[in-house]
Amino acid sequence: MSTDDEIITTLLARGWTQVHSGSHYTAWGLFWGKEIKRVVRQPWKAWTKPLESHPDPGSEDDKLLRLARAVLGSDDPDSKLTLPDCEFLETPWVDELSATRGRIMITKECVRIDDFLTDISEPQTRCAIIEGQRGTGKTYLSFYLLATYLTRGRPVLFSPSADVFLLFCHLGVFCCHDASRLRSDGMPLRLKKAVIPEYTPLIFDTSPDQGEPSHAIVMGYLRLIQLCRPDEKHFLVWKSKSSPTSQAIEASPASELVACALIQTEVPRGKPDIAGLLETINKLGPFARVCYSVGAAKATSFEALHAYIASMSSSDLSQLAERTKYASRNHPRLLLSGLDCDIFVLRRFEENGAECLLPTLSSRHITGQLREHLGFASLYDLRDMLVVRKPPDGMLDTRLWLFEHLSHDLLSNGLIGEEEEDSRAHYWSQVFPPKAKRTKGALSLQHLSRPRTIHLYEEELPSPLDVESYYIAHVLPNSGFHALVHAVPFPRKRQAASQDLGHRPVTRRLAEVQARHSAATHVSARRRSSRSVAATATAAPEPRDERSPKKPRLKHERRFVVFAQMEPHGILRLTEEDIRRLCATMASDPVAEYFFVLVTLLDVDCDFSAVPSSLVNRLKWYHLQIDLDLLPMWSPSP
Q1: DSSP secondary structure, 503-552, as one string
Q2: 3-41+87-249 maps to which CATH number?
């Protein structure tokens, strides 16, 4: 009997069974000791064609292009927007990775983790914990690591579930269902030398309902590579004894999600499908499972998350906010366990030389949902998130979104102004960009800050604009104007809006504001009558005449249109696309007077150097500073 035959006999005698068929056996034959063959798939033509053209403004292709720029982070309309290719492995694990029929995209996280595990020296660590949020691709990563270990022609153990252990070695594939077979004490020496030497990697893909790995595989002989969610129930005891190294994996960026969609079996290849994928990322954030779901499954995920937010109380969000103040290796009471999307996305962050996971808000849309259902006071609790107080490089989105929606809430409820007893500290001023005429503008803070109903608009603004509405762009890159209001400039003193706010949650603060405005309306109706009020009351039904907009306007004909950009650090950003949208809005009503307000944190200087000469004197420019206690620590470069 040869040495190899003796080893096989010993394995069989110890409870192992030899595998002669199936996906794992095929993978062993395909990868063992061989170079990985990478496959590249380019985006479908139906996806790229609308993005390569110069579509007419307002067309479906134009909407898709703006959505793609917002999601993929391309603000420059003159630059060509290209969708990324997908580089992947073809594997036999068709049933195990059914969503892609065995294809594994080679993501940056896959390469980074594989390089890390390859580079660490054997005495340095015997085990590693790789943590990631639900849906970050831990299972795909585990199979990718298995494939790369096979190509190196070295023994490797793989556990796809708690009671299955697969041994890949030069003799083939063997399987057992008892972790005690992996104990070093009692293991024959010939097995240790030939097929399970010390530091043999064991890739352990932990399911959410599992506890910790058994003592037999963490006692120090093998090198355990455990992939799990960031919850200490999976590794608390053995971590305290073995001091493993920790690695964090984060959700794929939008570009990788789009690329990976090319190998998803359930994602169709038409133009509406790339639009739906981008819309899902824009609304919910980078959650792969819900991005690649279709039809009723996707709708169910949307509804479930929105229902969860609607059911939250202020104390619920306050408790969650408390848990976001720190970066950590585990977040057991922060994340939702049963949904494919969440309020928070965990991002990889290095603190004191160790990798951990940092909670961030998942999207601008979800931030708006929290504002709509819970109001300013609850959303304000999130200002103490670590990512807001000290945003690492590349993680400024949460801070921007929070500032935007806190500002929207204050302005749309009329809570900024001298007449408000509980108004936040603020400063309002007219500013003059370089080369602007120093002409006094007629806009006052009372025109901008008054109770209005918030409406999301899609590509084009409604016409005519409603004076009782506060418009927020649904698709929005971080540049451009974020909000728009239409105001009748008289009377100067603000009155309660005659709008129906019944659809909005009545928080204690909003109830006080409504009561105060209601009382003020009754008093002013008895004590005061003005020519301006009377003129305003009769102005609405009058049609526009044919007089030139350059001629003096009557008071009751004046209309103010106010663009607002929320930029906490004071740097006005305008791309060519933003300028086109501004010009198109102004061209639609040449009689109106146009204003642009930059909203920043208190005591932040503003930079209007980006205003092009073509716009300098077409609008009046203002700066509103609001105290939102977000601790501005620097002004990032434009």
Answers
A1: TS---HHHHHHHHHHHHHHHHHHHH---HHHHHHHHHTTPPP-S--TTSP
A2: 3.40.50
